[in-house]
Design brief:
Blueprint lengths: L1 H26 L1 E11 L4 E5 L5 E5 L5 E3 L15 E9 L2 E9 L14
Parallel strand pairs: 3-6, 4-6
Antiparallel strand pairs: 1-2, 1-5, 2-3, 5-6
Length: 115
């Protein structure tokens, strides 16, 4: 009977590894554009890409912020900043796992700018 439990544990561990791999693949999605809103109370940011598509991303205390601003609240005054969001999905919601503040590109990059 102990042998059967061991085989079941191995199968479960293998299934867990596959599930972890799937979750890592989903978390590797990225979206780049201009930050248009930081909704601190809702723990959400809104980013618009070059085509004008806006996506709302939820964030939490596990979301990694990379760049000169290290706290999400500090981004609230930086509407128009160029960002790259790494995210996954949870149901219908997009959940940011990382927000990277990018250096400005040269004129003509095509990304919408703040007037």
């Amino acid at each position: 009977m102990a042998l059967l439990l061991s085989a079941g544990a191995i199968r479960s561990a293998g299934q867990d590894a596959i599930q972890d791999s799937i979750e890592e693949s989903v978390a590797a999605l990225q979206f780049e554009g201009r930050l248009t809103q930081v909704l601190v109370a809702e723990e959400m940011i809104v980013v618009q890409d070059i085509a004008g598509v806006e996506i709302r991303f939820n964030y939490d205390t596990d979301t990694e912020i990379r760049g000169p601003e290290i706290e999400i609240e500090a981004l609230a005054g930086h509407s128009g900043a160029r960002v790259r969001v790494t995210y996954g999905t949870h149901g219908d919601a997009y959940v940011a796992t990382g927000i990277e503040i990018l250096a400005e590109r040269l004129p003509g990059d095509g990304l919408p700018r703040e007037p």
